[in-house]
Amino acid sequence: MRARVRRVRRRLVRATRVGIIVAFFSFVEVAARAGWIDQLALVPVTVMVQQLIEYFQNGQIYPHLASTGASFLSTIMLAIVTGIPFGIALWRIPVLERMLNPYLTSYYAIPVFVFYPLLIVFFGITVWPLILISWAYAVVAVVVNTSYGFREVPLILRKVARIHRLGWWPRFWKVEFPAASPYVFNGLKLAVAYGLVAVIASEFILSTRGLGWVIAYNYNSFQVSKMYAGILLVLVISIFVYVLLSLVQRRLGHVRR
Fold first, then answer.
1. Contact 88, 150 (CB under 8 A)
2. Taking a C-beta distance cutoff of 8 angstroms, is the pair 71, 199 a contact?
């Protein structure tokens, strides 16, 4: 009975999420068609979709999509490779965690973009300043959630590991990491969101290609439908990546159980 109730609740949650998205896009379509909002400021969703299809048909979007995708994947991989080990280090060294905690909790108040000129000095006008700025936005979410996840591992699991005389590595890999993985994945979800936003925003001002550049260029050229088509593509990519990560997290949860 409880399992059935949980399934009904999950379906209701999914239906509500989809309903919110459908209601939002329906409102945009009606508001633009009815003239409630000037079409110089907002175009109907159907026009956005038509323009997006045209982007793919003429192939104009593919180089920009590849550029944004490469920068985004580099950002996330760098955040994972550096963020998870550093989060584990904070968990293993409580003194270090206490020292850095004030900085980590207030980190997102720092305007990271002001370091762009300094990164240009070190790396030149390349893709690396963009990736490093985006990494700076993404990595802290991974660090904080990883550290918190390992601190929240139930004490009983560690006691069972000691009873079975597991060494440090077997205890970490078979007990502690699986128990902390939901928190790590939550950090990864946040890193994906922050990283994608940072990549797109960086491309507005730091790049001559990419989806961010496409949106900014069309905005400055008063090509509103093309601008909103780029925004729509970014929204679709964001939703797809979030759903994909949720499915992976759920599958790993089933395997762990």
1. yes
2. yes
pTM: 0.83
Long-range residue pairs from 203-208, CB within 8 A, at least 24 positions apart, any chain: 203/67, 203/68, 203/71, 203/130, 206/116, 206/129, 206/130, 206/133, 207/67, 207/127, 207/130
222 dihedral zone (left: phi>0; alpha: psi -120 to 50; beta) = left
Spatial distance between the Cα atoms of 127 and 207, rounded to a whole number of angstroms: 8
The pLDDT tens digits for 150-173 are 998 888 888 888 888 888 888 888
Give the Cα separation of 8 and 4 in Å (integer).
6
Residue 130: which of 40, 59, 202 has the closest Cα?
A: 202
8 A C-beta contact, residue 249 and residue 185: yes
Tell me the domains of the chain and their CATH numbers: 1-42 (no CATH), 43-256 (1.10.3720.10)
Rounded Cα distance, 201 and 223, in Å: 19
